[in-house]
Amino acid sequence: MSAYELRKAALVSAVSGPKREIQYPLKADGKARYPSEIYGENVFTLKTMAKALPKPIFASFLKQRRGRQNLDKNTADSISHAVRVWAMDRGATHYTHWFQPQTGTTAEKHDAFLSLVSNFTPGGEEVTPIDQLSGGQLLQSEPDASSFPSGGMRTTFEARGYTIWDTSSSMFVQQGPNGTSILYIPSVFISYNGDALDEKTVLLRSNDVLSRAATDLLSILEPESHISHVYTTLGTEQEFFMVDRNMYSLRPDLKITGRTLVGQLPPRHQQLEDHYFGRIPSRVMAAMSELELECLRLGIPIKTRHNEVAPGQFELAPIFEEASVAVDHNLLTMDLLHKVAHRHNLRVLYHEKPFKGINGSGKHCNWALSTDRGENLLDPTVRPETNFRFIIFLLAVLRALHEHAALLRVAISSSSNEHRLGAQEAPPGIISAFLGDQLNEVLDAIEENRPLKNFSVPQFQSIKVGGTVLDVKVSGLPHIARDLTDRNRTSPFAFTGNKFEFRAVGSKQSPSFPVTVLNCAVSAALHEITADLRAQTGSKPRPSDEDKLTVIRKYIKLTKHVRFEGDNYSEAWVKEAERRGLPNIASAPEAYPHLIAAKHVKMLTKETGVFSESELKSRYHILNERYTKDIIIEAETLSTIIGQQILPAAFEYRKSLAETAVALKTVGIEGGPEIETLEELTPLVVALQAEFRKLVKVLKDCLEHEHETEDSNKHALAAYTDIVPVIASVREAADALEVVVADKYWPLPKYTELLLTI
Length: 758
Description:
23 helices; 7-stranded mixed β-sheet; Ubiquitin-like (UB roll); Four Helix Bundle (Hemerythrin (Met), subunit A); 14% strand
């Protein structure tokens, strides 16, 4: 079957293939179960654990979970027995320590509950099968540490690493093959020497560090409150594309790199602005509904689903949770969506820019701080101008951005996110904060020691819910509360009412590292502000309002440069950011050295203790190596597609045109559309051949020289400066050819088929 016939068969299957249907869970009386009744049924929650364990054992576990004691053998054995019975009652035959290596995804190794016990009798050895999960097996496992990214901390012959149960995240069961299930044990991953080899260990450390810094500050501001813990909360808006799986299988670039390396936009894509919040396609809706059912059972609180701006693009958003649990749930949701999409003959694409020329995908990380009393420290309340606690914590975040903008740029830098940053509706690489007119006015008024301007609408001043009130001027509609801020979709870090939205995070990456870096930077800022507040207070039992205002004014001035309310895409902002001294880092390889710059190393190691220097250096090498490998894989994939598919298709079409032209001449016809097309096609083929040869040469040169230096950043920079531009020029030549070559000769599914056939 020709490539064209395969394309058409895939298209027919997409529009006429069988549709998957599932039965929503029902009660005994045949009525549908409420989502709240299904929520968390496959999770070994604290409530479930409390029922399964003796009270002293459960109390001992809670003390360990709160960091007050180590988990003793008796408690571990009791929990392991209880969770094994609970899991096996739900069909589990295996268990796995589920962890987050520095690959951007998760990892798991399955072990069976089945064990054999040998009994020696006078008649010989007798083997008895039993089902077993010991306390030691629950607490840790041993994957091969040399086979995961370690940035040089582990070599091939140093293979030992440990996965250790993260007791702050609940265990759960997930469906396996043939009606069986698997018990998942959320874990951290460390080396034999105790170095963090994963994304989760450093996130948990940063959560603890931020909690201590915040509670220390609160002990000065509100000594009577006795707040003992502050949580980082996170809500991750996950954007993604969905395409037909048969179409996907015919695109080597999508399968290998996650993005299309060639392809022309169809005449209609997102320019009519009709896809955003439009009707969700029925096959996608079916997949989303099944996903949400799976998420309900696993206690993942998916709240929102909708079409995104680009055709074929969608979004899911959860309810806020404690940060490390939110990260677990985000990665689990991504994995579940892959599985569910497969059942519906769809393929989910998490790459930040799978299609050139239309919106890319992000993972907007909505970040806030909450006390153990449930108070949001970033809630401005009705009168933010007198809420000094809110203003101080707001300024701590701004101080973190101002001091460590380059570090936050590192945290969101990758070869894939590079295509998105600064493109359609994605923020640029300049890290700035958007607060909105009202909060900016509050800070300016405090700095200038003057009254606030009135933002209220006079005739409705009796109604106040945080911001102001809007009259819709329709008699049957109520007046609505207006938030303190508008939303700035071009800002990489925007305040959106009672949280910050870190919009620059890429859709494909784990949220762990960006949130870890943010936590660390805010912790350092809180320490700095706390020291200034103590110095200002002196021997007084607590600071006066004037003491607080003195410190507040200092940090308003220090952080003023990082606040920007305008269009982050504008050339004027680029110039203004340069004038303000804000870093404008164009590429990932240019960003990575900031991770090991002295200023940031000091903050991440000595000031917060979240990383060791060896962990930072290893991460630096991993980031650079991953970037280089990504670019080389893209170049090799593109080279194969051009050499084995696109150029042969162009040659075949050119041959057909030439034969037609000869045939026309034999009957006395000297001109015609075939000859005109041949004349247009030939120089395009020649141009693509020239660009193709250039790509092959630059790729060969890069591979030949990759061992000449051990500096991984030089390799990444070489990939960025030498290979990336050639990939772009080859694409440009191939895309020009796609317009001219007849459809029946083109070997790859086109954007029209990929984006508009779901």
